[in-house]
């Protein structure tokens, strides 16, 4: 089964990616970890930050081992430094 993921870029990913989102057609079943690996291959400039991102669907943080559903929007939330 085919699905389309939309990754929303926030923080430094927004600056590195030069866009607010990236659509990625994939085949199901698919874990978040596999989807992030595919995104890193497509956009290698994002790879170092992707490894440290929290990921959310709606208002729920998701684990990298979770299976993704069709046509999902995933917010990528890089770590924030501050005091």
UniProtKB/TrEMBL annotation:
- Pfam families in UniProt: ThiS
Signal peptide start-end: none
Q: What is this protein called?
A: MoaD/ThiS family protein
Name the domain of life this protein comes from.
Bacteria
Q: Which Gene3D superfamilies match?
A: 3.10.20.30
What the entry lists under InterPro entries is as follows:
Beta-grasp_dom_sf, Mopterin_synth/thiamin_S_b, ThiS/MoaD-like
């Amino acid at each position: 089964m085919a699905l389309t993921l939309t990754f929303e870029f926030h923080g430094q990913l927004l600056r590195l990616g030069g866009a607010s989102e990236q659509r990625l057609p994939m085949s199901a079943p698919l874990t978040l970890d596999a989807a992030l690996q595919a995104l890193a291959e497509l956009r290698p400039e994002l790879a170092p930050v992707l490894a440290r991102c929290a990921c959310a669907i709606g208002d729920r943080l998701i684990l990298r081992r979770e299976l993704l559903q069709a046509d999902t929007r995933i917010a990528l939330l890089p770590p924030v430094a501050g005091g």
